[in-house]
Specification:
With 452 residues, this protein is α/β, with parallel strands linked by helices. The chain is built from 14 helices and 17 strands. The structure holds N-carbamimidoyl-L-glutamic acid and zinc ion.
């Protein structure tokens, strides 16, 4: 049964020193005691914070990060031309490639402070759309990668049926993603069976977007055990198509037609009116914000100040994985708003005047809620997901408490994360994932094949 003694740690009611953290064999925190003496505990001489849940990932897209930066045929590139490139690229990936890419991604996420991941998984079938011999093969590869990397995972098998709102036929590039409702429900069952009894893993459901399912399908999924994730209102074109088809904007339609509540995570939710923003915030649903991907794809700015003023919950995800760092997502979430509003320290309140603390605590609570994982706080009953920042790292030296979080999030390019534990098990030591080398070599081989 691992025991740690943190020199300093961020607890639910604030900073504490010499904190004993005991974790049981199943990975749950059993005791947290500040002012403890070391005894036999493993010493963590740095500053320990809860590991950050990553609430949105398409793992396979890690293999195309950096490979889509090109002017498109229409003169300018866009989200929609990027999507065509993504479809073509995804056709090259089979089960082995998907597992190797996912494992490398998870290694990077762990090294940069994420300890759990919501995998929004829709690359289900062979390139021509035929199911694999085991229709759950690709989903099981995500779990296999997570078992190797040690990251906690909430697998979200995605229901994808159509190519536009509501019931537009799918395009050929979408063949690999498609299910009918029965096939989808069988996949969810298979995923649930595969994670049963494993406290590191959970399964939720995910209608891909209003563009990919029907209202009837949404009603069925809304009645299932959560979490429930859906992409929504990421691009103005989706808003326009939804208005044309239904007379309502996407978030407006969801609020009017489904029992949106705290089980839901609405990914992006970029384009909302004030009424949609306050209406959605009041449901307790989490806004799944993916700042580096949203910047990369030219999505626009999430209405963060209005969302926070309405008591809205948020978490962060790395989505297409052009970034893989919790620090960078939090940094851009705040600095993007600064560019937009010509202001500073946007994500703050009278009670929490430091943006680093407000951003981190928001992403911990919202991320844990969106993953359905008892995590995101160093407290008994939570997962033993811990990140140790090296207090003597040049980007943190001399800082402590909330200003240390600000220094971590808002300054420097190097990575001051020294060690990472998931469910009490060490996965990063001296800044490196314990399997970085072998997983990295396999990934490099796959990438040479893919990009050849
Ligand atoms: C996806 N990704 O499913 O991978 C989406 C693009 C779509 C992001 N939105 C495709 N970042 O929304 O149709
Ligand atoms: Zn996405």
């Amino acid at each position: 049964m691992p025991e740690f003694l943190a020199h300093a740690a961020l607890l639910p009611d604030g900073w504490a020193s010499d904190v004993l953290i005991a974790v049981d064999a199943a990975g749950w925190i059993t005791e947290v005691r500040p002012g403890a003496s070391p005894g036999m505990a493993t010493r963590l001489p740095g500053v320990v914070i809860p590991g950050v849940p990553n609430l949105h990932s398409h793992a396979f897209q890690r293999a195309m990060a950096g490979a889509t930066e090109r002017r498109g045929p229409e003169g300018q590139d866009s989200f929609w031309s990027w999507r065509e490139v993504m479809y073509r690229f995804s056709a090259r990936l089979g089960p082995e490639e998907v597992e190797a890419v996912a494992a490398q991604l998870q290694v990077e996420l762990l090294e940069w402070g994420f300890t759990s991941l919501a995998e929004f998984h829709y690359l289900h079938h062979a390139p021509d759309g035929t199911p694999y011999a085991d229709p759950a093969e690709m989903a099981l590869r995500q779990l296999a990668a997570a078992r190797r990397s040690g990251i906690g995972i909430t697998l979200l098998p995605v229901l994808y049926r159509h190519g536009g709102i509501f019931g537009v036929p799918p395009a050929p590039g979408q063949r690999r993603f498609l299910h009918d409702l029965d096939g989808y429900l069988r996949l969810v069952e298979a995923c649930r069976a595969a994670v049963a009894g494993d406290p590191q893993m959970a399964v939720g459901v995910a209608p891909h977007s209003l563009r990919a399912v029907t209202p009837e399908m949404l009603a069925v999924l809304a009645g299932m055990a959560g979490p429930i994730h859906i992409h929504v209102a990421e691009q103005p074109r989706e808003v326009a198509e939804c208005l044309a088809a239904t007379g309502a904007r996407p978030v407006e339609w969801l609020l009017a037609n489904l029992p949106i509540d705290a089980r839901w995570c609405l990914v992006h939710a970029t384009h909302m009116t004030v009424a949609e923003t306050t209406g959605l915030a009041a449901t307790g649903a989490v806004a799944g914000l993916c700042p580096t991907t949203e910047a990369s794809l030219g999505d626009g700015f999430f209405p963060l100040p209005a969302w926070l003023a309405a008591g809205g919950r948020f978490g962060i995800g790395t989505d297409s994985h052009v970034g893989t760092s919790a620090r960078d997502e939090l940094r851009l979430l705040e600095t993007g708003q600064r560019l937009l509003l010509q202001s500073r320290a946007v994500t703050t309140s009278d009670a929490v005047p430091h943006p680093g603390r407000r951003l981190l605590e928001g992403a911990l609570a919202g991320g844990a809620q969106a993953l359905g994982r008892r995590a995101g706080a160093i407290a008994p009953g939570m997962r033993g997901d811990l990140v140790e920042l090296a207090g003597d790292h040049p980007s943190l030296a001399g800082h402590s408490g909330d200003t240390l979080l600000d220094a971590w999030i808002f300054s420097g390019q190097a990575n001051p994360i020294r060690s990472v534990f998931v469910g009490g098990r060490q996965v990063v030591a001296a800044g490196r994932h314990v399997m970085a080398r072998e997983i990295g070599e396999e990934f490099a081989q796959v990438m040479r094949r893919l990009l050849a």
